[in-house]
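[Automated response] Your request has been received and processed.

Submitted sequence:
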Amino acid sequence: MTTTAGALSGVRIFDLTRILAGPSCTQVLGDLGADVIKIEQPGRGDDTRRWGPPYVRDAADNETSESAYFLSANRNKRSVAIDIAKPEGQALAKRLLARCDILVENFKTGDLARYGLSWNDLKDEFPSLIYCSITGFGQTGPYAPYAGYDYLAQAMGGIMSLTGEPDGEPMKVGVGIADLMCGMYAATAMLAALRHRDRTGKGQQIDMALLDTQVAWLVYEAENYLVSGQDPPRRGNGHPNIVPYQVFETADGHMVLACGNDRQFREFCDMAGAAHLYEDPRFATNDGRCRNREALIPLVGDLMRRKTMGQWMEGLRARHVPCSPVNKVNQVFENPQVKARGMQIEMPYPLSGAGTVPLVASPIKMSETPPAYRHAPPTLGQHTDEVLRELLEMDDAEISDLREAGIV
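Generated structure:
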């Protein structure tokens, strides 16, 4: 495992998030060296611990209480179990906050005010604190009080209207992409806020919403609508602005052909023995191919079915035409490029019968401060005693009293 001190070494995060948007965000920061203190409800913890199967299996091949879903977004964190619904738990949380740089939470808007842990409750007491809220709809607007989930954001934010076959029903993306993208935007915002804090000493509130970020990552389809006034249709695997750029059936399977410019289209046609296509004025330019996609795509599809996937891959790659097989997940982790980039790691994990647990690596590559894998996803409350001793200098008797009172 990498042991290099990360770029965010010395930054401590008080993590009040669960599910995916917040945990994926703080995992990124933890990978980059931040000390992430994951605060969880005693006896319950993050809901996703129970979001299975599959679950990690122990030495006797029995299912443990830890789900694969939880493992996916909670590496490089220390779990501390505190009941913030109790005044004593709130007081303990504030003592820990005094040793932290960032608070991240994804409670429903207004909920943390019940515990004295809202931005308004803390901003004067901790003026340098960066306080990031991740919610479905943000802290303002008519929907602010509503609970929000990834699925709702995908539906309300338009991506489902663009996903799926033209004559099929609207389709969500296969993973919780609205959650993940909100987490990425939130991580970026926190890094910017840290830069500002380091210059000025001032913290600030960050208000992140799943719906806002979903609208933002409609990117070119949103701009296509804003410029043209035309609502973009679903195009299945087609691209709104590039043709041909989609999945095609070959003689033995499906693959992606991605002709991103006119040269690549000519190279494809030459390999297919179809020079007449790029000589046709309707198809000579990308603009023409987009306007005449209904005529072109069946012709390209017929050509693609005449060769095997292997023949297309070999020939097109030699001509520098982008293409790819449509891999299943098991094929992804056998891909030589994915292996060469180290995208699967193993970490020691006491609950696993193998003694380790497989995880997806960080995609971030840095020459001086690469991501480090210090902590496997924690069991509930695994680091409670450790953190209380380290940050608050509590002794065993104090911790025992808190545990007997149900505070930790």
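Summary generated for your ticket: The first strand starts at residue 12 and ends at 16. DSSP finds 18 helices and 13 strands in the chain.
If you did not submit this request, please reply to this message.
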